[in-house]
Amino acid sequence: MARKYRMGVTRKAANVVVQACLERGIAISGSTGFLLTTRGRKSGVDRTTPVNVIEFGGDRWLVSPYGRVGWVHNLRAETTARLWRGDVRETWEVEEADAATAGPVLRAYVRKLPVTAPFFDAKLTDPAEAFTAEADRHPVFRLARSRA
User: Fold this and answer.
1) pTM value?
2) Which of 39, 106, 135, 142 could make a disulfide contact with 99, Cβ separation 3.0–4.6 Å?
3) Longest dimension (CA), the chain
4) 37 in helix, strand or coil?
């Protein structure tokens, strides 16, 4: 059974360190780490969180390995994602993937970032179909159109 994500003291501390590195342009997990800023769906206040962007099938993807977290709800309400790391700033329109599209992306994500594997029922060696079955619990967004 997959672990449920909890934002504990250790995760909060790790996010502070990762965010500080990304703000300075230092990617912790290779070149996949970015800061994602979304507008709060209720408050209207900008919210920033560390995320990983992966490339798969010729597209770039945002994956929520921990489920329907705050940034997922915010992107569903307003489909603009502002990604940045150091001086690199990008603004994207996003499209949420359906389960059939999300399955192979989720599989690629977990293989690239195996630290997230405990949050999935599917195993690293499972076929994409096993990840498709979990797509409703792990939202996936395609970075669709860049906005200058």
Assistant:
1) 0.87
2) 135
3) 42
4) strand
